[in-house]
Design brief:
The protein is an all-alpha fold. Helices cover about 70% and strands about 0% of the residues. Keywords: DNA-binding, Membrane, Transcription, Transcription regulation, Transmembrane, Transmembrane helix.
């Protein structure tokens, strides 16, 4: 009787997520590609490990080599900077090299695949150690959520390598029959995790901006003060914080200051990152709307927030109260 193995079930789930992303939300970029590749790899694992399809066994290591490389390129292109073939194209040599090893040195794959997963996972975590301002292409509304999501994705890539190590251990110990079970459960679980997290709206890159990630000049206290004076004036006059698509990249372009210099000036002058600097002003605007009798939802949208979860989180951080509680207190006070 034909059964539905765990990886094939995972593939079906990922395909549904992929179609929802592409057809319903109209997002066709690297995040959609990452989910699509995860779905493909999950199906390949099912065909190779459960149904014993020979060609699928040949494709499996190539797909495995592609996933961490694509995750890294997706991270860079959606959160850090625009995709550039001369810098990012080299990462797609990973599956090409895996295919070469498959033909000429298959034993190398036992080292290559775990190394790719661990290496790219660590690389993502290293970038995230620089703080929320290391992701200038993402909406400031999301606060630190994108960093957390990408940290989990990076950790899951590293965890995927553990399944390869476990497979080797079971083979050495004479329990090779456990290999399909280990692959089905651990790898499929990680593919679902990476694919599912990639759906988050908090990872959705804002509309295309001209790249402004030029290197910042040395720290200058007087220059920081001048930048902050210009920034505070521009933010107050143009009410930039009301734009839900506002990013560090966009602020940098409007002010004519490199991303790193602007981010550094805000960090050093306020002690907070750019996201908190902007969201504090959004919360202030929401408080004004609530005090004027507006609903929580209308205050959220008026202040430049797209999602209720981000709004509630930032409102609580700034005021110490939930929006509804703050509104009731304000009305009782009046």
């Amino acid at each position: 009787m034909l059964t539905l193995p765990i990886p094939m079930f995972g593939a079906f789930v990922l395909v549904v997520l992929f179609l929802n992303l592409v057809l319903r939300e109209g997002r066709h970029g690297f995040l959609a590609a990452l989910i699509g590749v995860c779905a493909m790899q999950s199906a390949v694992i099912a065909l190779a490990q459960h149904y014993g399809v020979g060609p699928a066994r040949m494709v499996q290591p190539v797909g495995a080599a592609l996933i961490p490389a694509l995750a890294w390129v997706t991270f860079q292109a959606t959160a850090v900077r625009r995709f550039m073939w001369h810098r990012d194209g080299v990462h797609f040599l990973a599956p090409v090299f895996a295919a070469f090893c498959l033909v000429f040195a298959p034993q190398v794959l036992d080292v290559l695949i775990p190394t790719l997963f661990v290496g790219y996972g660590i690389a993502i975590l290293i970038v995230l150690r620089r703080g929320a301002d290391a992701l200038p292409r993402l909406r400031l509304e999301a606060g630190g959520v994108p960093s957390v999501i990408w940290a989990v994705i990076g950790a899951s890539l590293m965890a995927s390598a553990l399944s390869d190590v476990l497979i080797v251990v079971t083979q050495v110990a004479g329990y090779g029959a456990w290999q399909p079970v280990i692959i089905s459960i651990s790898v499929t679980g990680n593919l679902l995790l990476v694919g599912g997290l990639s759906l988050s709206r908090n990872l959705h890159v804002a509309p295309e901006q001209r790249d402004t990630t030029a290197a910042a000049p040395p720290v200058d206290v007087e220059a920081d003060a001048q930048i902050m004076a210009r920034l505070d004036g521009m933010v107050a006059q143009q009410k930039l914080y009301l734009d839900p698509d506002l990013t560090l990249d966009r602020m940098s372009r409007k002010l004519g200051v490199p991303v790193k210099q602007l981010s550094g000036a805000i960090n050093r002058s306020t002690g907070e990152n750019v996201s908190r600097y902007i969201n504090a002003r959004r919360v202030a605007a929401a408080c004004d709307a609530l005090a004027a009798g507006g609903s929580v939802t209308s205050a959220m949208l008026t202040a430049g927030f797209n999602t209720k979860s981000n709004f509630n989180r930032e409102f609580l951080r700034v005021t110490g109260q939930a929006p509804s509680v703050w509104a009731r207190s304000e009305r009782r006070g009046n």
